[in-house]
Structure formats: structure tokens, C-alpha cells
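ESCALATION

Customer reports they have been waiting on this structure for their group meeting. Please prioritize. Original submission:
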Amino acid sequence: MTVAVDDNEGGNATTDHLGERMSRVARRLQEEHGDVEATLQAIAAAAVGTVPNAEDCGITYVIGRKKVEPRAWTSDLPKGVDSLQERLEQGPCLDAVWEEEVVRVDDVASDERWPEFAREASDLGVGSMMCFQLFVVGDQLGALNLYARTPGAFDDDSQDIALIFASHAAVALAGAEHESNLRAGLSNRDVIGQAKGILMERHRITADQAFGVLTRVSQEMNRKLVDIARELTDTGAVPRADRRRD
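Update from on-call: job pushed to the front of the queue and completed.
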């Protein structure tokens, strides 16, 4: 299958095999090295360059069925549509993440599934939309939303290509979040180790005893252990608990 796409790197329209194009996109996303926000922005930009007739892209997180949070966008249009869907509590992105996984709107102005949304989104300049579920984690869901300013911009080929792109994007995003979590875990471990070292040297206690001090203060203050450790390393004092020791 070959498709005509915009090659952002070369600036000219080229005809590539979809598999080759997806490989280039995957390599580009991997270059973000665990930076979740940069990966989200890269996905949005790459989607516009990959899916035929897509003029804008937004990546949206939907939390608890009500909060619609734009996380990446190629213009203000996706942000405006996200705000509209949160206010009205209806729209194709919400349906995509909670019900259908893929929603295509060929003519926003005349679509009868979400009357209020259709009218106001059309006024914002949206002609066509496609929305794809990216992930589901607990009560947090992610969607990839594609926009065109003219009705009927997306056909079946556009949808098929966007589906493949969304699957690659979901893998790239999961990898970035995993790497980010690993880095955060290592950083937290270092901070806790430093805090334990301070307590051990100051009070002549063992590593286990020092960890016990941090754990007890964390429980008593209902704060994360890493936050207690970070404050100790920053200030030299256990938060509100200088007197505590094993």
C-alpha cells in the first residue's frame, strides 16, 4: 500500500510505503529518550505529516470521564475543541476513549450525534475529525485527535493509516512513560539514600534505623517518603521532627 504524505523533513510531497514511513516515525519518537512531553509533541507533529489530509492534531487525556486535558497540539484549534468537549461533556474524543475506540466525523457541522458540539466546533473552524483511543490506564485515558478544516477530508485510507500510526504512537508513549518512571525511581532512591546518610552520620544510627525514621515521619505527616527525604537533604532537618530518632 502506498500513500501520498507530507514529508516534514524534506518539505515536499513524496510517495512512500507506509511501513517505511512508520519506521521513520518510530525512530523519530524513540529519539525523545523518555521525555513524555516531548514524545507527545512529536506524536502530534508526526501525525499531521503522516495521515493524508490531516491539518492539525491534538493529544488529549480524559480523566474520570469529566476532565478533558489537552497534552499536545499543533495549533490552538485542538485545545479549543478539547475545552468545548469538557464544557459540553460530549464529543467524538470522549466517545473514542470511552466507547468506540475510533470515531470519524465526516462533516462536523451536520453530524447529529452531538448537536451542541457539532454547532460550536463548526464555528471554531473544524470541518472533519478522526479520534482514536491511545491508551487506558485506570480512570485515565488518552486519545489522538486529527482535524481538517474542510468536510469529507478523511476517507477509509486516511482512517486505516491513522489507526496504524496510533498503534505506533501508543507503543512509543508507553515506552517514554516507562523510561520516565524508571528515571524518577532512580532519582527518588538517590534522594532517600542521601537522607539516610545524613541521619546515620548525625545520629550514629544504622541504615535500617535511618530508613525507619523517614518512614515513621512520612506516616505521621501523611506525606510521601521521598518528599520527606528531599526536604531533609535540602534543609538538613527532618520536617517537624528533629527530635525523632531510633
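Sent to customer with the following note: Confidence is low (pLDDT under 50) at residues 1-15, 241-246.
Escalation resolved.
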